[in-house]
Amino acid sequence: MTLTGAGTVAAVIGWPIAHSKSPQLHQYWLDRHGIDGVVVPLAIDPAQLEQALRALPALGLAGCSVTIPHKESCIPFLDEVTPLVTGVGACNMIKVSGDRLIGDNTDVFGFAENLRLGAPDARWDGTALVLGAGGAARAVVAGLAELGVPDIVVANRTVKRAEQLADQMAGSIKAVAHGNVSIRFVPWEDISALLPNIRFLINATSLGMAGQPPLTIDLSGLSSDCVVNDIVYQPLETDLLRGASARGCVTVDGLGMLLHQARPAFKAWFGIDPTVEDQQRQLILGST
Ligand code: NAP
Asked: Which residue's alpha carbon is nearest to atom 13 within ligand 1?
């Protein structure tokens, strides 16, 4: 690690923050490129979010990653946001430019890039079924729209939340969508009936994650042409991915989303678009 008084300092802010993999993830690239810099974890009390953000330029920070619970609440304190932040309703990366704070959403890129690389032969048409309607599901929906998927269906335990997602994003996502896109919602009970006709299935709920209840859906109707992605990465091979793989589907795990969302942040702060490497993947896997 190289860090001098002339080094570039960035941060990751959340509350709590101890669990964050971001410092480790960025440190790998800082070492790889011999950059004089660091990404420090900062636990920011939600009640002091505005003061903390306003201090970033004065402290000379290059920017920060934003994690739970600040991804939505930081937006009013930013000077500028990208259309993606507006479309998704969440910001996970801030760049300091002079004394201005510019917000972006790199979860969308992380999701889309991971899917693109994990399913290189996929045709981005047909219907995608997204399970979940939380913050991560919003980034997934935007990523699918950016990839060009024209028909996105959202199923969530709490139907109201899926309805809100579809209503809000249907208009705002046009700015980033690749072509026309329809976003609609269905009740959770309709999932099985949809499986034979979908081209993409994405789990964006916390179901199946270590310590959470399992995701129990009957995959018997799932077509082997369907690409299945679980954004849960603890465990790396979830029951959903195992079941889909047994049916002959191309499957994509969730760790790549975490790794690739960090790339635009690193580029914004340190000026280099880094490459996700297998050794880095193993490092992060070993620490989860
Ligand atoms: P969130 O906003 O809290 O949303 C959680 C989602 O899971 C909601 O749709 C919720 O449904 C659903 N859910 C939770 N418990 C459920 C249950 N018992 N039955 C049915 N549905 C249930 O969380 P988030 O930020 O969107 O994150 C969701 C998951 O994505 C987490 O596991 C997180 O680790 C993962 N994630 C991964 C990455 C990555 O880089 N790979 C990035 C972000 C998030 P209700 O609306 O009905 O509560």
From this structure: 205
